[in-house]
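Practice set, problem 2.
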Amino acid sequence: MPTAEREPIDPAHVRKIPSHFAWADHRLRDVIGTLTLEETALLFFLHLAADKNGCSYWGDAALAKKLRLREGVVVCARAGLIARGFVAYRYPMYQLLPLPETTR
């Protein structure tokens, strides 16, 4: 259904985009099923934490605490996201990478 035709279920409570808005490419819907839950959690958190260039500085211990994961699990999730081309990493910085035109 085109966006223009969608009406909110509760018009009195339509969300507003705050000045500290974070965005994620909607095409992630096409690939999210290929990620582990840990990779998904890390990727989503990085989208929320990123600046306008897709960069953020989060250490493994801080990410593990925020995501309620062990540090080793964060490291494995990061390796998976790097291997799939979702992020670049050079200690201590993450960079979200653009999705390829075809994500399927």
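Problem 2, part (b): a different protein.
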Amino acid sequence: MKKAELIAAVVEKTGLTKKDAEKAVNAVLDTVVATVAAGDKVALVGFGTFESRKREGRVGQNPQTGAKIQIPATTVPAFKAGQAFKAAVAK
């Protein structure tokens, strides 16, 4: 599902106009991104939790040359699905 399809689904389920649904979807996504980028969590009960995680630096290998390279530490976004989401997918 692409963003436009998500907006169309919101329009269908809520009866909002396409413009209002697009604003709502964009507002939710922007808020999640800003919150996680600030280092906080977004927990949606039954759906899941968005958070940032620190990934330690490590040594990698260039697959073409076999040369060892140092991969720096970084912070990455992460999502952990909630129980209701997991159960719905498992059906």
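Answer key, part (b): The mean pLDDT is 95. The chain has one domain: 3-85.
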